[in-house]
Amino acid sequence: xxxxxxxxxxxxxxxxxxxxxxxxxxxxxxxxxxxxxxxxxxxxxxxxxxxxxxxxxxxxxxxxxxxxxxxxxxxxxxxxxxxxxxxxxxxxxxxxxxxxxxxxxxxxxxxxxxxxxxxxxxxxxx
Length: 126
Hints:
It contains three helices and three strands, in the order βββααα. By secondary structure, the chain is mostly helical.
């Protein structure tokens, strides 16, 4: 067990939850926007799709370890399909005409000013 883990094996200081844009469309991870799942999805459907996504990701890992290109393509297809169904990829789930800025650096998006101001506030608190 590492010195930073608890008896359960979990990190003693888990990473904070990713920051979410004010409109709830994106998570920010290492300065990059990642589209969130469609909040209008019924909870049961969301849970089923997340389960499928996680299973497909495990299959990607198995296929990579086995060096099985065919299985890898199929697993990645399943990951992509689950992400589209969740609303994380494909057409945006919002309807106000705002552009999709998925996977872009926050600094080069319409969220840049908000993000800079937030970082300045955080820096002044320290």
